[in-house]
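Re: beginner question about structure tokens

> Can someone show what the tokenized structure looks like for a real chain? I only ever see the sequence side.

Sure, here's an example I had lying around. Input first:
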Amino acid sequence: MNLSGSKVLDGEFRLRDIIYKVTRTFLSAVYENMELVLFPEVEARTEDPAVEYEMRSVRLYHNNGFRAHAAAFGELKGKRFVWTDEYNEDEEEAGFLCVQEHESVQKGTIEILEADTERLTIKWSGEAVVGWSEKYGGNVPFETVFTVRLPDRVTYCLDAFSGTEMKIDDSTCLKLLNLEEFNQEAARVSETRAWEDFNTVLRFCLTFEGRDYMGEVVFTNGKNHHELKMEPGCPRKIWFRNVDYNLRARYEVFSFEIE
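And the corresponding structure tokens:
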């Protein structure tokens, strides 16, 4: 089925004049303050003997994601995201294409053609670096249409350098209470590189319909060894997934799952 005037069919990938068959699609997503951030990925392959072996597989993906300006997947149908350069005005990358190596998408457009409770159909077109020959060097045009299943769960991510509070939905928000104390331990361990000596507590408050519920994440012998403790009676289920940080680079993201 040809969609939205595309030059390729659903399940195809065109790189200049080479047609590939889509072999794998994947979508991950996170929430940042009630807004979806999307990470689409598609892989494709051709067995055409006329195509040089090194050019027979492609992978197109978003490494750091882009904000969808929507709070639910069902709101995405018809949305269009355009990059006229490698980065947009929000400093979000246009993506990466891997044929020979992982190279930048130089400009691109992502369109959400269809959206329901289980899948998205995405049209992704643009130009990218391939670095194989004069014909397949830079600004190589590509276009693909593919359908991808929605993720089973979406993680809520809090960017601590943007603020200590994030909105989960209209009745729920989460706020970190002792970020400065937590970061003192994170900085100490980073400086000493004694990663297994990371022992601290992250305290937070989950507010639901005007009532506060206290919680804490206890880290023992490393940032990947943690236990969440929640005040009894909290009506929302909550799991702490991880923290990733580089304080010198002003990067720190806390990830939760909340039902």
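Each token stands for a local structural state, so reading them left to right follows the chain. The chain is about 5% helix and 50% strand.
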